[in-house]
Specification:
The chain has 844 residues and is an alpha/beta fold. It has 29 helices and 33 strands. The protein has an eight-stranded mixed β-sheet with strand order 4-3-5-2-6-7-1-8, sandwiched between helices. A hairpin with a 5-residue loop joins strand 32 and strand 33. It starts with 10 loop residues before the first helix and ends in a 7-residue tail after the last helix.
Length: 844
């Protein structure tokens, strides 16, 4: 049967291409062509497995397991022999394995441990269009390896929907093979109008399924974003379609293997599979002719600005929608109903954003560092990630002690042995020092999947939990450990009564055993010892030091965290009454009202002295001096901080005099606290000084510039802490202290405040106004100038005065520096005009 699959159209071309040196091949083949199962068999039959393994990378664990099982059955070999699979924490391979299905991170770790990748002949990147982070990185490392020490390595990249132009440029030179495929037509149907916001999506899906079942044949596949929505959909379908004798089954990554196999099995009657996007690609569910697509998926993202991982329900791209609809046309003509309108479809993104643009990069960067990549910013990225995301990951790794500058540390290399996030790897190493490896392994297992404790549903459950698990705890993790131990001992029925997710408890045991094996392989002491709460808390702190948090006040659950973040502690957290704790999980949650909130969960109480001991370079005290605009005074606060998180503030501290004076002076300069006696005459004095220094450089007078003005004001403010203290302080003693007595005499002589007018009848004094750039000036009435025939000057005759000639009403009528010309040419005309208007004044 497999020989008739469309992918065999390119079998001969493929066999020829893989024999070329440094073979790089892109295979573009539509859904249902058989590429995931048949390409490794084509290469096996061509003899390539005699030269090494064929390793096929899959984005999802479920697909890797099921595809391996399918190929093993087609070849006729037990799973784990010639054909096997390897995913995180699970290995079904042997020395005889020649075709190995793996998740992407597995092969990258293998390249890190064995840079020559001995024993591997072909690497196949399947469903590459999904652009998973480890797929991108592993492809880059494989290309480096092929160009250096392994020219015989064969690299294949496969997808049904792929931007081949960009990939061809990246892989060049390469061969691109295209299979026309064999698909059946799928009729696409949309809703006539948008789904109501207040109507649950699972009810709408069940209603539409009931409508479409009589009009279609074959099995149905309903796409939902997560396990919760799947369970609700199954309930709704069973209610709506009671008389249809349907087998309704869930399919998602958290299910046990047996339940996953049941979802893809064939049944005598009609089957309805309700699945997450694990059924979108690679995985074939035979018999599907009807697809109902919610258009939603849970998509993981990382915000480098806040350091928050998010897992929100989002609209899928148009490309993903096409992949989903294609599930209905694998074996016969099909029908796809999209639970959105045709117009809404035009507004969807054409492609999914690559994971390298939206996920935490710390684990993959640690792997790159172990491979000798010093500068990750210049790494061979297919698409370069955001610089802030790279920097954030590097900062975290530095906080964990995994890297030092650009190189990996010995601690970092030891962390790589653990196939978990670097935070948990660091915890294992701390646990080895504190003798609690076994407890740490259990904690890590509890955090890998769904939370074991369900949310409380009432007072009765709370009381029961308190009686059995205890009402006091220093850690949410300790409560989870107690809950797991109780579930293992008491069984499913009693566990459910206590609100313990028993299926999760069963999965934890397997993960726990695998973590213990990893720790044992690394020669860590895994002996069973009494649970040491403080030791376990210190381990959590070692892995999550950048998520230390404290309660803002006792009246709410609002918290401040390191790196200037805020969040709300979960209401059911065991550490609600503790002032200081470390958070294991920061999640951005979308509420029913579509509002987002930052929820802090998996919290563990810590002590301040632990921070001092474990991170002495990050713990310090600091005095902050600032101007309080409300009190109009300088206040000082002594802050005790861990990194940028303030642990305690003491506000009753006398501010240092120098800092207080500087802050008060800044307020004065800004005009917010004006000094009563710093008036126009002071400003004129400063201008007189600066202009005289300009006109008579031989005097060597010191300029008084803006920064010098600030110095003088600080002197005025010395010893004061409030505006009230300085508002009415004398100004002249400080200002004039800028000059010596001799310099003051020079200033008064050559840049005087006034000038005497040689009026023959009655001598007058005129005030001189100085400007920053123009000539100095006086303003006098015409009558006061009678008898003044010579031009007026200062500074040894070097600087002529500008004379504003005023009428008897003190309004300017003329501006001049040449009095002789004024009396001869301008005055006669002015006299005629003004004498008629002011006849009582003296006119000469």
């Amino acid at each position: 049967m497999s020989q008739r699959l469309p992918i065999y159209e390119i079998a001969d071309t493929l066999r020829a291409a893989v024999r070329q040196p440094r073979a790089r091949i892109i295979i573009q083949a539509p859904t249902g062509s058989g590429k995931s199962t048949q390409v490794p068999q084509i290469l096996r039959n061509a003899g390539l497995t005699d030269q090494g393994q064929i390793v096929l990378l899959q984005p999802r664990r479920l697909a890797a397991r099921m595809l391996a099982d399918r190929v093993a059955k087609e070849i006729g070999t037990p799973l784990g022999q010639e054909v096997g699979y390897q995913v995180r924490l699970e290995n079904r391979t042997s020395a005889a394995t020649r075709i190995r299905f793996v998740t992407e991170g597995i092969l990258l770790r293998q390249i890190t441990g064995d840079p020559s990748l001995r024993g591997v002949k072909v690497i196949i990147f399947d469903e590459f269009h999904e652009r998973h982070l480890y797929g991108d990185i592993t492809l880059a490392r494989a290309l480096d390896l092929q160009e250096s020490t392994r020219p015989d390595l064969v690299i294949l990249v496969m997808s049904a929907t792929l931007d081949t132009q960009k990939l061809e440029q990246y892989l060049a030179p390469c061969d691109t093979l295209t299979s026309a495929g064999r698909t059946y037509p799928v009729a696409i149907e949309y809703l006539d109008k948008p789904a109501p916001d207040d109507s649950p999506l699972w009810e709408l899906a069940a209603e539409e399924l009931a409508r479409l079942l009589p009009r279609t044949t074959g099995d149905a596949l309903i796409f939902m974003p997560g396990a919760f929505e799947i369970s609700r959909t199954i309930e709704a379908v069973r209610q709506r379609c009671r008389g249809n004798d349907l087998v309704v089954l869930p399919l998602h990554g958290e299910l046990p293997a047996g339940d996953q196999d049941a979802a893809v099995a064939r049944y005598p009657g009609r089957k309805v599979v309700v699945s997450t996007n694990v059924a979108e690609t690679s995985l074939t569910i035979d018999g599907i002719t009807l697809v109902i697509d919610s258009g939603l998926a849970r998509i993981a993202r990382f915000d480098p600005h806040r350091g928050i991982n998010t897992l929100l329900i989002e609209k899928i791209s148009a490309s993903s929608a096409d992949q989903r609809s294609g599930r209905a046309g694998r074996t016969a003509p099909g029908h796809c109903l999209r639970l959105w309108t045709a117009h809404e479809h035009t507004l969807r993104a054409p492609q999914d954003l690559p994971e390298v643009k939206r996920l935490d990069l710390s684990e993959v960067i640690l792997t790159l560092k172990a491979s000798g990549i010093r500068n990750v910013h210049t790494f061979r990225w297919l698409e370069k990630p955001d610089t802030k995301a790279l920097d954030r990951a590097l900062t975290l790794l530095a906080d964990l002690g995994a890297i030092d500058s650009e190189t990996i540390t010995e601690t970092g290399r030891r962390m790589l042995a653990f196939p978990v996030h670097p935070r948990y790897a660091r915890m294992f190493l701390m646990a080895a020092d504190l003798g609690c490896v076994r407890a740490c392994a259990l904690l890590a297992a509890l955090t890998q999947g769904r939370e074991i404790l369900l949310r409380s549903t009432g007072r009765q459950m709370d009381d029961l939990r308190d009686d059995i698990l205890g009402s006091e705890s220093e850690s949410d993790f300790l409560l989870a450990i107690r809950a797991w131990r109780y579930a293992v001992k008491a069984g499913p029925e009693k566990a459910r009564q206590l609100g313990i997710h028993y299926a999760t408890a069963r999965q934890v045991q397997q993960l726990f055993d695998q973590f213990l094996k990893i720790a044992d392989d690394e020669e860590l002491d895994i002996a069973d010892r009494p649970l040491d709460g403080e030791a376990l808390a210190r381990c959590v702190l070692a892995g999550f030091s950048d998520q230390v948090a404290r309660r803002v006040d006792n009246g709410s659950l609002l918290c401040e965290l390191v790196h200037g973040r805020r969040g709300v502690l979960a209401r059911d957290s065991a550490v609600q009454k503790r002032p200081l704790f470390v958070v294991g999980q920061i999640r951005e949650i979308e509420g029913r009202d579509k509002e987002l909130s930052v929820l802090l969960t998996q919290a563990t109480a810590v002590q301040e002295n632990w921070l001092r001991e474990m991170f002495p370079g990050d713990f310090f005290e600091q005095t902050i001096v600032r101007f309080d605009t409300t009190q109009r005074r300088v206040v000082a606060e002594t802050l005790r901080r861990f990194r940028d998180l303030t642990l305690e503030t003491n506000r009753y501290v006398a501010p240092p005099q120098e800092q207080a004076a500087a802050l008060l002076a800044a307020e004065v300069t800004a005009g917010r606290c004006p000094l009563s006696h710093w008036d126009h005459s002071v400003e004129q004095w400063i201008r007189r000084l600066n202009r005289l220094a300009e006109w008579a450089p031989e005097f060597q007078l010191p300029l008084l510039q803006q920064e010098d003005r600030q110095t003088l004001i600080e002197q005025l403010c010395h010893g004061a802490v409030s505006y009230k203290d300085i508002k009415d302080r004398p100004v002249w003693p400080v200002v004039k202290s800028w000059l010596s007595k001799t310099q003051l005499d020079l200033l008064d002589t050559y840049a005087p405040e006034h000038i005497d007018l040689p009026n023959l009848n009655k001598p007058r004094r005129a005030k001189i106004t100085y400007t920053e750039t123009g000539p100095p000036s006086i303003s006098v009435r015409i009558q006061e100038l009678y008898g003044v025939e010579q031009d007026l000057t200062i500074c040894m005759g070097r600087v002529p005065l500008l004379i504003n000639v005023l009428a008897p009403n003190h309004r300017p009528v003329q501006v001049t520096q040449n009095l002789r010309t004024f009396w001869k040419e301008s005055y006669p005309l002015l006299k005629q005009q003004l004498q008629r208007k002011y006849p009582k004044h003296e006119w000469r």
